[in-house]
């Protein structure tokens, strides 16, 4: 696939050539096309050659990417084919790049497979943040479920003091009655009972 600039000033002799290949993959049970190589020609001589990476789509689709470039800041999908090549002297960047080599109907692009990964750094950070928030929520729910009521009221009342007569036949662990001159002594006992409201 050749892109010629025609009579546009200094670009008159410039041609951008896209070498596309198609292959059948049994796993997806369909043909896929890929951009194999990009060549820059000037006055019919090859000036630079770039190998393309990760530029592929099903043959019935087109391929779209916001930036296809040889620069690292755009993820460098175009790599110079050789260290000794003049490609290192060129910087190539396509903005809003879309290509389709096969199965073109009525001169329009088919549905585009976008180069944006499903697991880009932004999406991964969003997933990690969501996971942290879910863990915090699960911990909070766990604590709420196992939270004991703080609305307990303790009401303790003392029964009126009474004097219980200490008898001689009390059990051995009871205190012995105090006797002096035939008078009986009484021991003061106080009983308490508590009511707990929950």
TrEMBL record:
GO cellular component labels: bounding membrane of organelle; cytoplasmic vesicle membrane; endomembrane system; proton-transporting V-type ATPase complex
Domain V-type proton ATPase subunit S1/VOA1 transmembrane as annotated: residue spans: 117-154
Membrane spanning stretches: 118-141
Main location: membrane
Superkingdom per UniProt: Eukaryota
Key words, A-Z: Membrane, Transmembrane, Transmembrane helix
Keyword Glycoprotein: no
Membership in a protein family: Belongs to the vacuolar ATPase subunit S1 family.
Protein name: VAS1L protein
């Amino acid at each position: 696939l050749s892109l010629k600039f025609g009579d546009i000033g200094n670009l008159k002799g410039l041609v951008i050539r896209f070498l596309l290949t198609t292959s059948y993959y049994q796993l997806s049970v369909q043909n896929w096309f890929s951009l194999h190589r990009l060549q820059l020609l000037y006055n019919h001589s090859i000036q630079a050659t770039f190998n393309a990476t990760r530029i592929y789509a099903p043959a019935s689709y087109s391929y779209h990417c916001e930036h296809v470039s040889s620069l690292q800041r755009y993820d460098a999908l175009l790599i110079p084919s050789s260290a000794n090549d003049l490609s290192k002297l060129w910087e190539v960047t396509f903005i809003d790049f879309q290509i389709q080599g096969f199965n073109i109907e009525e001169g329009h692009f088919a549905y585009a497979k976008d180069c944006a990964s499903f697991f880009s750094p932004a999406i991964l950070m969003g997933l990690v943040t969501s996971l942290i928030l879910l863990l915090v929520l699960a911990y909070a729910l766990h604590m709420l479920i196992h939270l004991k009521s703080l609305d307990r009221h303790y009401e303790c009342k003392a029964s009126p003091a009474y004097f219980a007569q200490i008898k001689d036949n009390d059990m051995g662990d009871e205190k012995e009655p105090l006797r002096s001159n035939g008078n009986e002594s009484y021991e003061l006992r106080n009983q308490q009972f508590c009511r707990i409201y929950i």
